Amino acid sequence: MAEAKFPGKLTGGCYCGGVRYTINEPAVDTHHCHCGICRKFHGALFLTLSILNRKAFTYDKGGNNLGSFASSPNVTRHFCKTCGCPITLDLTQKPELIAVATGTIDDGAFPGHPASTYRHAFVGSKVPWYEIKDDIRQCEGFDS
């Protein structure tokens, strides 16, 4: 499969459209997180996150309609207070970065991450009945 190209600018937002954002640089990382916190917060078997330089991300609409939840000492999650859609995560130990729920990017656009960063993270926490059948690198932690 040929590697997709970053289109130069991406837009995205929540389900109801109350929160909108723009991304102006490619993601530095994209991964499928299998940790129990992501599973519970997103109601899915795993969450795909794209990590961006914070300076490349702006809320264009509805930033005042974001709810926040500290899901762990190092992660604060932000969601639309109207529709409940999870949108971003702040990583306390990396304030220069912001994580975006990749599924909220409009039209399923490629977030631009380098192929080398694409992986399954926290696979030791995945649900036991789900078998990862792709050839994407698997890590026991965030980036091991």
Please give a structural write-up.
The structure is a single chain. The protein is mainly β. Helix content is 5%, strand content 38%. The chain contains one helix and eleven strands. The protein has one helix at residues 36-42; strands at residues 10-13, 20-23, 29-33, 47-53, 57-61, 66-72, 75-80, 86-91, 97-101, 119-121, 137-138. The strands form two sheets. It has an eight-stranded mixed β-sheet. A hairpin with a 2-residue loop joins strand 6 and strand 7. The protein is globular. It starts with 9 loop residues before the first strand and ends in a 6-residue tail after the last strand. The mean pLDDT is 93.
Largest sheet: 8 strands, mixed
What integer is the average pLDDT?
93
Q: What is the topology, as strand order, of the major beta sheet?
A: 6-7-8-9-4-3-10-11
Number of helices: 1
H/E series, N to C? EEEHEEEEEEEE
Please provide the count of β strands: 11
Q: Termini, distance in Å?
A: 25 Å
Query: Helical amount among residues, as a percent range?
Result: under 10%
Low-confidence stretches: none
Strand content: 35-45%
Q: What structural class do helix, strand and pairing data support?
A: mainly beta
* Coarse morphology: globular
Instruction: Please compute the radius of gyration using only Cα atoms.
Output: 15 Å
